[in-house]
Design brief:
The complex is a heterodimer of chains A (96) and B (496). By secondary structure, chain A is mainly alpha-helical. Chain A has three helices and two strands, in the order αααββ. The two termini of chain A are 44 Å apart. Classes of the chains: A mainly alpha (96), B alpha/beta (496). The interface between A and B is large, with 54 and 75 residues.
Chain lengths: 96, 496
């Protein structure tokens, strides 16, 4: 198992699209280090040949009839938008 | 009429409503008055809409009058009953914050399936109940807005994450409430506030309209003042839902009738006591109360035997890998684009994500997103996430093996009674370790309950956890009801 000090906070925060302050990096680094030390306990378990469980009761191939149903109205969908214009969500410029 | 309407059960109140001795408007007024009198101290609600609740109560009274006029059958038990809703479950037209700044001001555009079902049963959806931000925590101290107080001791936490749901009920601010349980978030606050809390089997209740934390573990369930009331609410909200592909196609039985049939049958229950749940870290007063409850079951003629759940010590580690991995994925949707908080000083679209999330999420949510992103990241996935999923298989197998010999497993709900505010807030790991008895149930997808089983010498509530077999909620409720019938812990109310 990797070592807890492999926790490269800047890289992970970038993947999570979450900016952290210097104080948060220091504090979270320490707390997450504790957590990773703790979960190293799982290394004791022999998992050879054990299938992973993603869901307690896996349901596969859930089919639905292909029948259109009313969805949210445009007004309802946009009601919580931070910024909107002409039935659209407005975001900062993406391409120059 | 009971002395205090706001402290009565659904069973008592629905009887009064049926006989015309009480109107839903009177009941709602009593609950609103009680809420105004105590919520300044308890702070269970993020918000409530008095006018909307009174309109629902009037509509319920009108439905009842109309049904009476047309001579149609008995009303649903929930007709006219105020049910408080955890602020992570959508109610159309009402705020939905998850106790997070990132959703401040958000108004639900639609009803969750459980909300729709409660309304169809005639219940009044009442208020928005506080929680740990995005249901991540065990004390409600992670709420961005306020910490809820335990009605039994206002200096202490009510538990969490559904702390508002448990505290509101214990304080008489609702007749029943809904919470959600990912690792114990219904059962632990129920134990700490001396109410009944039920987490159904995974897939029993639709998650549509519940803000997702860890989708393979989350389940909605009721808080109630009696096992009978919990069964009533479960019956109303359970069932398959095409909008939740993980909800299972299993018939919903009449739980109350099932429990009463089992009681009449005189079935001799076989109860399992897992030795791993009674070791180090268990508060002696909690241990003694749980042993006394087991003694009560023995006196009833139940067969009590020791069982082993050998992978118990790995449950917290597996849980915090799986739950944080799922949360890091689920919370990616909070990006400031379509709803919720948006940072005002972003210089481009990507920067908008970084700043919005930094400003909108609280520290516990950030910690979990970081941990979850890490365990899923390239190079670490197999070592952490995949290994945790395999350990999950072993934990689930432990339970299923134990159920070859017993019907229901009996344990403490929480290793300690309610702790003081601030006591564990600085040490996330200490807070996580507090979930030791509840999280295995979520990993295995089992139904679990907490019911009042005593008080410490200092007057703090103690909870008994019962863990049932998959989709055998009726049996679980029957075992719970048998204990409740012989004890009076559930009748005590805090002095406020």
């Amino acid at each position: 198992m990797p070592q807890p000090n492999d926790l490269k906070l800047d890289h992970i925060a970038n993947l999570a699209r979450l900016s952290l302050t210097a104080e948060e990096k220091e504090r979270f680094g320490r707390q997450l280090g504790d957590m990773l030390d703790y979960v190293a306990l799982l290394n004791e378990v022999d998992v050879e040949g054990v299938e992973p469980t993603a869901h307690a009761f896996p349901v596969v191939n859930v089919w639905a009839q292909d029948v259109p149903e009313p969805g949210l109205s445009v007004e309802d969908a946009l009601r919580n938008a931070p910024e909107r214009r002409d039935n659209m969500f407005v975001v900062p410029k993406v391409v120059e | 009429m009971p002395e205090e309407l706001f402290n009565s059960t659904i069973a008592e109140l629905s009887g009064l409503l049926d006989r015309g001795a009480l109107s839903s408007v009177e009941l709602m007024k009593a609950v609103i008055a009680r809420t105004k009198a105590v919520d300044g101290r308890v702070r269970a609600f993020n918000s409530y809409d008095e006018e909307d609740a009174m309109a629902q109560a009037r509509a319920s009274d009108a439905r009842r009058a109309k049904a009476k006029g047309s001579g149609s059958g008995a009303a649903s038990r929930l007709e006219g009953i105020p049910v408080g809703i955890k602020d992570v479950i959508s109610v159309a037209g009402q705020p939905l914050t998850a106790s997070s700044r990132i959703l401040e001001g958000f108004v639900s555009p639609y009803d969750a399936t459980v909300t729709r079902k409660l309304k169809a049963a005639g219940a009044i959806c009442w208020g928005r109940l506080n929680l740990d931000e995005f249901a991540m925590g065990s004390s409600t101290e992670n709420s961005a807005f306020a910490t809820t107080s335990n009605p039994w001791d206002l200096e202490r936490v009510p538990g969490g994450s559904s702390g508002g749901s448990a505290a509101a009920l214990a304080a008489g601010e609702a007749v029943a409430t809904l919470g959600s349980d990912t690792g114990g978030s219904i059962r632990q606050p129920a134990a700490l506030c001396s109410v009944v809390g039920l987490k159904p089997s995974y897939g029993r209740v639709s998650r549509y309209g519940l803000i997702a934390f860890a989708s393979s573990l989350d389940q909605i369930g009721p808080f109630a003042r009696s096992v009978e009331d919990a069964a009533t609410v479960l019956g109303a909200i359970a069932g398959h839902d095409p909008r939740d592909s993980t909800s299972l196609r299993q018939e919903v039985p009449d739980y109350n009738r099932g429990v009463s049939d089992l009681a009449k049958s005189g079935r001799r229950w076989k109860l399992g006591i897992p030795r791993e749940y009674f070791g180090e870290g268990l508060d002696p007063e909690v241990g003694a109360a749980v042993q006394a409850a087991i003694g009560e079951y023995r006196r009833m003629g139940c067969e009590v035997r020791e069982v082993s759940l050998p992978h118990t010590k790995y449950a917290i580690g597996a849980y915090y890998i799986i739950a944080t991995a799922e949360c890091s994925s689920n919370l990616a949707r909070f990006d400031g684009v379509r709803y919720g908080h948006r940072s005002k000083d972003a210089k481009d679209a990507i920067d908008l994500y970084f700043k919005t999330r930094a400003e909108g999420f609280g520290p516990e949510v950030k910690r979990r997103i970081i941990l979850g992103t890490y365990v899923l990241s390239s190079g670490y996935y197999d070592a952490y996430y995949l290994r945790a999923q395999k350990v999950r298989t072993l934990i689930r197998r432990d339970f299923l093996d134990a159920y070859r010999d017993v019907d229901v497993i009996v344990t403490p709900t929480s290793p300690t009674p309610a702790f003081r505010k601030g006591e564990k807030a600085a040490d996330p790991l200490a807070m996580y370790l507090n979930d030791i008895y509840t999280i295995g149930v979520n990993l295995a997808g089992l139904p679990g309950m907490s019911l009042p089983c005593g008080f410490t010498a200092g007057g703090l509530p103690i909870g008994l956890q019962l863990i049932g077999q998959p989709f055998k909620e009726t049996e679980l409720l029957a075992v719970a009801s048998a204990y409740e019938q012989r004890t009076e812990w559930h009748l005590r109310r805090p002095r406020l």
